[in-house]
Design brief:
Elements: E1 2-11, E2 14-24, E3 29-33, H1 40-48, E4 55-60, E5 63-64, H2 70-77, E6 80-83, H3 95-106, H4 111-124, H5 140-152, E7 158-162, H6 170-187, E8 190-194, H7 198-204, E9 207-212, E10 215-220, H8 222-225, H9 231-237, H10 241-250
Parallel strand pairs: 3-8, 3-9, 6-7, 7-8
Antiparallel strand pairs: 1-2, 1-4, 4-5, 9-10
Helix pairs in contact: 3-4, 3-5, 4-5, 5-6, 6-7
Length: about 250
Amino acid sequence: MIKADKIYKSFGDLEVLGGITVTFQKGINNLIIGRSGAGKTVLLKLLVGLLSPTSGTVYYDDVDFFSLSKKETRALRMQVGMLFQGNALFDSLTTEENVRFPLDMFTTMTKKEKLDRVNDCLARVELSGVNEKYPSEISGGMKKRVGIARAIVLNPRYLFCDEPNSGLDPKTSILIDELIDSITKEKQITTIINTHDMNSVMGIGENIILLDKGQIAWQGHKSEVLESSNETLQNFIFASPFLQNLRDAAIGKG
């Protein structure tokens, strides 16, 4: 569980987040959505500790993240996995070396233990046998799966995903969503996903947080989206005529 408690964040005179209080439960898909400039990326960076709040704090299972010592912070970071929007793979490293990187940085495992763990993670994302391939030799969807394998190699309790479907075709996006969902439930991870992908919202959105102008404008389950009367949510979700027709059909207006 991760909780943001009365989080304010300003850059100079610009207030980006205005008192966010929200809890992200483990074992479900927590999605942060909103228009560009709504504060999604800033909130995600605050949750993972890449930014500090102007006021308020973040709790990891009742532990105040911003009160930890450097040693304690490092220990907690070992429990965090991060899937970056651009994959952030090292072009000069093989798939195996990319996935192994956190193990090299944070553990004292033997070479064989590392290889076994890397192979387990690659198998989990259905990429067995690509150990020696470089990022330039695999597809965008495969790169994303390598990123997931690296994110889970340390057996994290918390997983952050920044636009995991960015640049992917719809079919591959669904596969990535299903993979994140299955890992989240299998390992009971606290997973937080920053996304613009409405397929993800309607596919795996179990706790959806809509940000608007630095505030939580709506929160709920995917099953509540189509019938919600929240104007901000409607304007965001049903921006296109196609989606408006889908909503009207779902509630019997079509």
